[in-house]
Design a protein that fits this description.
seven-stranded mixed beta sheet, BirA Bifunctional Protein, domain 2, 3 domains, single chain, alpha+beta, aa-tRNA-synth_II/BPL/LPL, Arc Repressor Mutant, subunit A, protein biosynthesis, 523 residues, phenylalanine-tRNA ligase activity, 19 helices, PheRS_DBD3, three-stranded antiparallel beta sheet, aminoacyl-trna synthetase
Length: 523
């Protein structure tokens, strides 16, 4: 309103520093006042009521030390003031002076006061020499404080800057003139047409707020998938696209039998020790697994069979019955494969395995043959638990992505070919394999991918051809081969989102903002 009234009266405003803001008695010379005025100018010019041009200024303001000197005088002046006149018969020791004016002022002030010949020595003490002094520093600082500059010019300003008593401050002021929509009152422009405006015809004379096509829209509110869930969804889609069916994996608690024995992991294997696996104390023991199958499994461990010599180590029922938190989703794959082989064993077809096989594969391929076998492609993405030492990249629970393919006559070449297609769909074009060891697969392959940002080969998964010692006790015909692989979910997610501490991805320290803002997934 002040801007409008001033323009109304004088036609233009040459210098907004001359305006006196409401509630003030002095003109608005300060930086802060000009910022307030700029806000008003922007608002008025957006309504085409005024236009303005900006002028840049450089001015000076006092530092805290400068402000103190402007009030109390320079150190040298304070020293001079504290001392008695020469010839009055008294003097002051440096120690007394220090007590009087403080050590800093005494130290700095003495040097300058001596140089100016304001003070001198009398015996051991100090006295005034000059009968009167002019404290130029104080005078100059007061001038800077009120005008932002010195009439004496740049050299004097530079000297004060060097003494750290003033600093430069860039400023702005404005020249303002009227524009087409000028008026002394600000009418609020309409933002919408209403029925009232149409019936009263007021729409013809109303002013309307302009559309701002540069405005950013409001961020949509609503739920957001956690990055791990986004990645899981993407991986799930790749599997579904390749004709896989999802396995049920809700049983976090498994027995030693399904997690290890069924997979031909020896009962003495270090992975089964408490340092690596979480065991349940209540209930501590599982129900008995299917009897005939259990006997075939224990036999192949202890004495061998199906062309294998077995481990030839004593078998423990207790070890097999222990309840634990599954250490890999291969436990679920094992029980699913066992169900898939039901008809091969001469039993009723198992519904869940049957449904998965029928859903996942093409009609022709999924037809069961004379032996009761039907090919299957199965996957899961779910949680596993390991008694790990937790650090920036490891937690005691994490997610595994797992796939198994069962068909007659599958070879290692099928596994390798399949892995290339699968990882290619994840955007990982360049993979390599390295021979590895798993108790349940032979051969076994570790999968490495070239990481373009890290510029090195990183391990992305583990895979292999399931052993006959695992498959044949389940009842599969000899020529039914199964290949499988497992990859982590957290690692690719962390790489994708540039997260290097797992705690920013999982747990109570995850920022909701990062979840809401994380982009769609593209590996
Ligand atoms: N279970 C293996 C792991 O935890 C992954 C794997 C699955 C390996 C299937 C081979 C076959 O790393």
């Amino acid at each position: 309103q002040l801007v409008l009234d001033t323009l109304d009266k004088f036609g233009t405003i040459q210098d907004t520093r001359a305006l006196v803001l409401p509630g003030y008695t002095e003109p608005a010379a300060s930086h802060d006042s000009q910022i307030i005025i700029l806000g008003a100018l922007n608002s008025l010019s957006s309504r085409d009521m005024i236009s303005y041009t900006t002028q840049e200024t450089v001015s000076h303001v006092l530092t805290p030390e400068g402000a103190q000197i402007a009030v109390q005088g320079s150190h040298e002046a304070r020293v001079w003031q504290a001392l008695p006149h020469k010839g009055e018969g008294s003097s002051m020791t440096p120690k007394q002076l220090e007590e009087r004016v403080g050590s800093e002022t005494a130290k700095i002030g003495q040097g300058r006061a001596f140089k100016n010949k304001w003070i001198g020595k009398e015996g051991d003490g100090l006295v005034r020499l000059a009968p009167s002094i002019e404290d130029i520093t104080q005078v100059e600082l007061r001038e800077v404080d009120s005008t932002g500059t010195l009439k004496a010019g740049e050299k004097a300003l530079a000297e004060l800057r060097k003494r750290k008593l003033i600093v430069q401050r860039k400023g702005q002021w404005f020249t303002v003139k009227k524009e087409s929509a000028f008026s002394t009152s600000i009418s609020k422009p309409e933002t919408d047409l209403t029925i009232d405006m149409l019936t009263s015809n007021s729409w013809k004379t109303s002013t309307y707020k302009k559309y701002n096509f540069e405005a950013e829209g409001l961020p949509p509110s609503g739920g957001a998938l956690h990055p791990l869930l986004k990645v899981r969804e993407e991986i799930r889609n790749i599997f579904l696209e390749m004709g896989f069916a999802e396995m049920p994996t809700s049983s976090f608690v498994e027995s030693g039998f399904w997690c290890f024995d069924a997979l031909f992991v020896p009962q003495q294997h270090p992975a089964r020790e408490v340092q690596d696996t979480f065991y349940l104390s209540d209930p501590a023991e599982s129900k008995a697994p299917p009897k005939a199958y259990y006997e075939r499994v224990s036999k192949v461990h202890e004495h061998g069979g199906y062309g294998s010599t077995g481990y030839r180590a004593p078998w423990s029922d207790a070890e097999s019955r222990k309840l634990l938190l599954r250490t890999h989703t291969t436990a679920s794959s094992a029980s699913m494969l066992y169900k898939l082989a039901a008809k091969c064993r001469g039993e009723e077809a198992d519904q869940s395995a049957d449904a998965a096989a029928a859903h996942g594969s093409s009609a022709q391929a999924s037809k069961e043959d004379d032996s009761g076998f039907r090919p299957a492609k199965l996957f899961s993405v779910d949680r596993v638990f390991r008694n790990e030492t937790m650090d920036a990249t490891h937690l005691a629970e994490f997610h595994q992505v797992e796939g198994v393919v069962a068909d007659r006559g599958l070879t290692l070449a099928d596994l390798i070919g399949f892995m290339r297609v699968f990882f290619n769909k994840m955007g990982i074009k360049n993979i390599r394999f390295k021979p590895a060891y798993n108790p349940y697969t032979e051969p076994s392959l570790e999968i490495f991918a070239f990481h373009p940002q890290l510029r090195k080969w990183v391990e992305v998964g583990n895979s292999g051809m399931f052993r006959p010692e695992m498959l044949e006790p389940m009842g599969f015909p000899k020529d039914v081969h199964v290949h499988g692989w497992g990859i982590g979910l957290e690692r690719p997610t962390m790489i994708r989102y540039g997260i290097n501490n797992i705690r920013s991805l999982v747990g109570h320290k995850v920022s909701l903002e990062s979840v809401e803002n994380s982009p769609a997934v593209r590996f």
